[in-house]
Amino acid sequence: MSSKKIAYCGLLTTVALLLSYVERMLAIPMIVPGMKLGLANVAVLIALYILDNKTAFSISILRILISALLFTGFASFLYSASGALLSFTVMAFCKKTNIFSMIAVSILGGISHNIGQITIACVIVENIGLFYYMPFLIILGIATGFITGIVGNKAVYYIKNNKH
After folding, report:
1. pTM for the model
2. Distance of alpha carbon 143 from alpha carbon 115, whole angstroms
3. Which residues have CB under 8 Å from 68's CB, separation 6+?
4. Tell me: the pLDDT tens digits for 69-127?
5. Which run of H or of E encompasses 145?
């Protein structure tokens, strides 16, 4: 692994952790309990487009693991990991097809993240009624995925066109 790639990995993992922490401090009233903006996904999206799938996946998992150890605990780890695994799989597949723009990939990632989290929540609390939140989660996944997609798109454009 090149020193440049190692630097990107460290930087993107740190950015993801910082964004996760900032997101926890934001007091935004949410429609769905536990819903977050998904700001940390910007770092994963950037890694997916400037590095490779394996590295982007590693950054995503490291962020979730370190965040759980420092801030949230094991229960949050389960929810975050289930959402991230489904989200990453969908984003990596959609990117590979070359059919979707980065913003569309991010939106699909946001939606699938919410699907993964609500599914694991239904399993943990043994209540399929939580799927009631799915329409709200899909709308929120579209909105937050759009925002992170725009930010990721701008960042990747800047990184690729300003090589130093």
Report:
1. 0.88
2. 15
3. 74, 76, 77, 80
4. 888 777 778 888 898 999 999 999 999 999 999 999 999 999 999 999 889 988 888 88
5. helix 134-161
Identify how many contiguous H helices and E strands the chain contains and give both numbers.
Answer: 6, 0
What is the CA angle 42-111-55, rounded to 5? 40
**Per-position b or e across 129-157, b if 16+ CB within 10 A of its CB:** ebeebbeebeebbbebbebbbebbbebbe
The number of C-alpha atoms within 13 Å of 63 and in the hemisphere containing its C-beta is 30
| Dihedral of alpha carbons 147, 149, 150, 152, sign | positive
Count CB atoms within 10 A of the CB of residue 77. 15
Q: What is the DSSP letter of 126?
A: T
